[in-house]
Amino acid sequence: MTDPTAKDRAARIPSPRPPADAGPCTDPAPTTASAPPPDVTPPDSLVLRTGALSWLFPRRGALVAVALGLLILVLVALGTFASSTGMGFAETLSGLFGTGDPATVMLVQDFRLPRIAVGVMVGAALGIAGCLTQTLAGNRLATPDIIGVNEGATAAVVASVVGSSTGMIGEWWLGPVGAVLAAALVVLCAGGAGHRGHRVLVVGIGVSTVVGAVTDLVMSRQNDNTAGGVFLWTVGSLSGRDWSVGTPLLLVLLFLLPFALAAGNRLQLLRFDDDTAAGLGVPVRRIRALALALAVLLSGAAAGVGGPIAFVALAAPVLADRLGGRSRVPVLASGLVGGALIAGADALGRVIAPVEIPVGVVTSVLGGPFLLWVLFRPERGTGRR
Amino acid sequence: MLVAQETGAPVGGTEPPPPRPPGPRRRILSAAVALTALLATLTVLSLLVGTGSSPVARAWDFLMGDPSARADAQLRLAVLDVRLPRTLAAVLVGVSLGAAGCLLQAVTRNPLAETGLLGVNSGAALGVVIGLTYFGVRSSYALLGWALAGGMAASAVVLLLAASGRGAASPLRLVLAGSALGATFHGMTSYVLLSTQSTFDTFRYWTIGSLAGLKTSDTYPLIPLIVIGLLVAFGSARPLAALALGDDGARALGHRPGLIRVVVAGAVTLLAGSAVAIAGPIAFLGLLAPHAARAVTGPRMAAQLALSALIAADVMIAADIFARVAIRPWETPVSVLLAFVGGPLLIWIARSRRLSTAGGTA
């Protein structure tokens, strides 16, 4: 890893940016200056022109997206197949496509598929949210859980358990509501995003610590059964999730995705310092606020449905960055990687042991080594880290 | 200010020039003195108040060497056997976490790094859970050993991974290796806990963090570790300051960035591991203290370390005193009070000055 601060200093005085090795931001892909006029097309894109309109079509990005989409489909098929009832693979597929006998179709489509679909959506939401916050702050540690999303969701769930007479966990929508409330509290306390969104992140740590402490205090007065039930929730699990939570989550995703893609596009320009970005016509403050709000909503919805599943929001953008080339913000790829991670982890959790292992445990136990394996493999001469 | 056109002298000419703001050196020194005085006060206070029926005045007499008070066995027990160990432990934990957090944020150039980043906390938790589940450990002293061993082992694995191969020990490698393996250990802990209910109940109380029930002898073995960690910390202040210039800048000054990072991370492991072993996983203090210190010192590394350690010790003792008196006669978990004291403090710091990220000193 060559340290780019020297380059920075030559290009810009003073350099308010953290060095690139603190996060996903590096200088845009080098342009190959050939004969005049210089060809400034990024090496991984096609230029599509019609008259006055032109569009940079991300060749590599599109390829990565298609490949990831196929991978998710394969993982979904494997996930429906992976379970304890002895159903053959061909039979599972016939159930998936609705061509098998009615019982099989019902079993696959009404019981197994919804849960896996919910998992993919939760992963996608976490991946996109993580990509937005990491890019915003230029810091790999800036994941949505830092801004109190998980603590808020957990606090709401704990409140529902404590408030009820039965000790059962309340409605699923409590989680997202708690998450959004906590994040709103963070934004209120921060009174502005601050430089690169750092103020929000640091305030977020403070607020989420306090919220988490309140939860701990309440939990320490509960009996062990209740505590155990809440603990299971805080690990993150998809068991028993179906379309009743899947449909709202899908709507949220579909509604927010265009905004997220647009925000990602603009965040690219925020890799420059604010003045440069403003000069390029980026409404800096508005884009920051939008990216943060999107991250909160997406990760809040995910935490509410699946519990605070660890590590996906941190790992997915890193992996997507590695796959898709560094010249753009990999919003879509992060979402797809997140979906694939959770689909794979959920399938593994159901076959790896006689009892089902919650997806959150699998993502954190295996996600870490997987990420390191991808990142720290001896590279083939790209010279990038 | 209105200025006369011709001479450039201030209009009126008689008013004295405004007092110059104190220089950074004086500001740091006065902050250090104030924090040390506060630490002394809190230490005495920590010996005076607490559970039990002994009034504060009697405890004061005891400290002052009043013979009748010295003869009071109950008072002696309260002050020397209950409060003194706790006070010592609070200072040790605070100083360790403050210094460790400061080092880690400097080494990773990441203001969001906290002392759990190298996997120390998750490793300690895993060690405790393994000790509870598979070895039937129940005494606090044995748990301390398991936590220390787990934290050190985890951190060693992270460091080995981060320091191997190409781009050895770059800040990003440290951060990612730490987060990734931390998540792994955390997942393993969850798995063991989900499969054994009996462990969970004990672990719940360990994970909340507390200084209650410590004996002085429990912390003795850790003191050398903490001292070594602090010596390395202060010894590496200058190389770390060079690292803030970026790796190339540090090399130009004759330093070896990769080596510095591994050595400093080792010191962080000693400090954070000892702190976790004593008080459970209190990650937050190691994040808060460097931010507070930087608000005073700016980028001066040695001053930052010292103030960070002092601030953390102050906050820790204060939180522990509150923990004893908040809901008498019960103990409140110290991590909860740390959050209540430290959370607002961190928010205030973040709001009160512009957090610059230049040079990784955020």
From TrEMBL, chain A:
Record keywords, A-Z: Cell membrane, Membrane, Transmembrane, Transmembrane helix, Transport
GO molecular function: transmembrane transporter activity
Main location: membrane
Record-level GO cellular component terms: plasma membrane
Composition-biased stretches (Low complexity): 22-34
GO BP terms: siderophore-iron import into cell
Residue numbers spanned by region Disordered: 1-43
Cell location: Cell membrane
UniProt biased composition (Basic and acidic residues): 1-11
UniProt membrane topology term: Multi-pass membrane protein
Top-rank lineage group of the source organism: Bacteria
Keyword flag DNA-binding: no
TM stretches of this protein: 62-82, 116-137, 172-193, 200-219, 243-263, 290-320, 357-376
PANTHER family in UniProt: FERRIC ENTEROBACTIN TRANSPORT SYSTEM PERMEASE PROTEIN, FERRIC ENTEROBACTIN TRANSPORT SYSTEM PERMEASE PROTEIN FEPG
Protein's recorded name: Iron ABC transporter permease
Organism: Streptomyces rimosus subsp. rimosus (strain ATCC 10970 / DSM 40260 / JCM 4667 / NRRL 2234)
TrEMBL record, chain B:
Residue ranges, annotated region (Disordered): 1-24
Subcellular location: Cell membrane
Transmembrane feature ranges: 28-49, 84-104, 116-137, 143-162, 174-194, 222-246, 258-289, 301-322, 334-350
InterPro entries reported in the protein's UniProt record: ABC_BtuC-like, ABC_transptr_permease_BtuC
Gene giving rise to this polypeptide: fepD2
Membrane-topology annotation of the record: Multi-pass membrane protein
Family: Belongs to the binding-protein-dependent transport system permease family. FecCD subfamily.
Keywords: Cell membrane, Membrane, Transmembrane, Transmembrane helix, Transport
Name assigned to this protein: Ferric enterobactin transport system permease protein FepD
Pfam families cross-referenced by the UniProt entry: FecCD
Keyword set includes rRNA-binding: no
